[in-house]
Amino acid sequence: MIPFALTSLASAATFALKPFEATSETTDLALTATVVQDNNILSLSYLLTGDLSKVVIPKIGEAAQREDRLWEKTCFEFFIKMGTGRSAAYWEFNLSPNGGWNVFSLPGYRQKLKEERAFLQLPFSTQVSPETLRLEISVDIGVLRQQALVGRGQPLHMGVSAVILLLPHQESFWAIAHPAAQADFHHPDSFVITLAEITPSTS
Fold first, then answer.
1. To the nearest 10°, the Cα dihedral for 188, 194, 196, 201?
2. pTM higher than 0.85 for the full model?
3. CA atoms within 13 A on the CB side of 123
4. Do 80 and 145 contact (CB within 8 A), yes or no?
5. Pairing verdict, β 4-5 and 193-194
6. Cα-Cα-Cα-Cα dihedral sign, residues 13, 10, 4, 140
7. According to the lineage, what is the superkingdom (predicted)?
8. Exposed site from 125, 136, 151, 197, fewest CB < 10 Å?
9. 177-199 tens-digit pLDDT
């Protein structure tokens, strides 16, 4: 798949996320992600619409703290990679509607996952109604270049995805692209957004 390019500062694009497997439950849902980049600041707005009575949504704002294994429940995710290929370093961001969050760094494809300590907090907002769930976040991605041990000077690529837990306990995997035979948000070809050049953060 040809990457979607965000080539200018403060540029924006909205992407439709599709389930890896369409089911009768997922056909009643739609998920989009709007990505806005303003130099170091990357903003995302996820919008899930449809019959949310089928979705297991963690209690909003219940736990605004770092948590592990958020992907086992409804969780919105994005990935940022420095360079291309399986050997490129990348980061995984996990966001739960309950306020839980985490950021992990990986030096290569599914290798040595560890918490990224450059982020001590990751505030975001969540709003929910019977037919819509919106989650919004803005994050300074300039710090990622400072943390990278390899790949400095490489372009940044991004993947956007989500795990939506459906009743009674059915996981559905949503992403802009599903390039593999199995759902795999880490797959190198899942990073279909090319970010504009950024200035390393000095903070």
1. -30
2. yes
3. 0
4. no
5. parallel
6. negative
7. Bacteria
8. 197
9. 999 999 999 999 999 999 876 55
